[in-house]
Known about the structure:
There is one protein chain. The chain is of the alpha+beta class and about 290 residues long. It is built from nine helices and 14 strands. Helix content is about 30%, strand content about 25%. The protein is globular and about 60 Å long. About 40% of the residues are buried.
Amino acid sequence: MELNLDIVTTPLRPAATVVLLRDAPAGLEVFLMQRHSRSDVLGGAFVFPGGKVDAADDELDMAAHLDQPLALLHAGLNEAGISPRTAGGLYVAAMREVFEESGVLFAQTAGGQAVDCARAAALLRAGQCFNALLSEQALRLQASHLVPWTRWITPTSPSVTNKRFDTRFFVSTVPASQVAVHDDIETTASLWLSPRLALAQYWAGQIELAPPQIMSLAQLSRHASVASVLREARSRLPPLIQPEPFDEAGGRVICYPGDARHSVRAPAMPGPTRLYYRNRRFEPDGGFDSLFG
């Protein structure tokens, strides 16, 4: 992965990501998708489904198409600086993006029945916008299935992109009878892997991961099941993670809350508090095992 050394002063772009989880015979697994190699954001890297918020996400008739009141969604994000409608838009963006990229639709009909995802996807490919699709099919988005996990804000010295994002990470399971798969447009491959195996494949050079994915997988590796992840997510408010990079001995170092060089001394998550850019990848100082210590 190439290192970005430019300073970026453009405004933050609101974004939302869904970490899809499942229980497998060997334990917890996470869904990862490979972004198209020509993408201008993390091209070729494996990421969780997600993307930036569109203006239309805030314009949805939320009373008609969300299964949770805006006040409750707003409280779950723990962001006093945004309005309840903006909070609702973040949930809408998360569910729209995961549907566009993986075919997973967190929605039910007005009568509570499962959605015909194949038909909904075909309408979307034919050019129907997401809000119109929900209205025409009388669907209610299941915001209750998404649990806030973390919030990541890109610093002005981004290490792997030339854009800045304010991204809310949610955790969830795939709805029953649905299958997550890459769209072959924005994403070209997909994998279900345990968090530790995903990091092992990254360490072996088999897949590329950006720092937020590395740190998130290290955090998730502490959990043995979906229930354990959801229990933690529901037991606390999502921590704010603002990486603070600096250059040392000609190399890039990214430090996180809890590090001696970070302005926030309290850790925001388990795992290493620093990643070093070495050998064209980001790694903790103590080697692979220190991701889990």
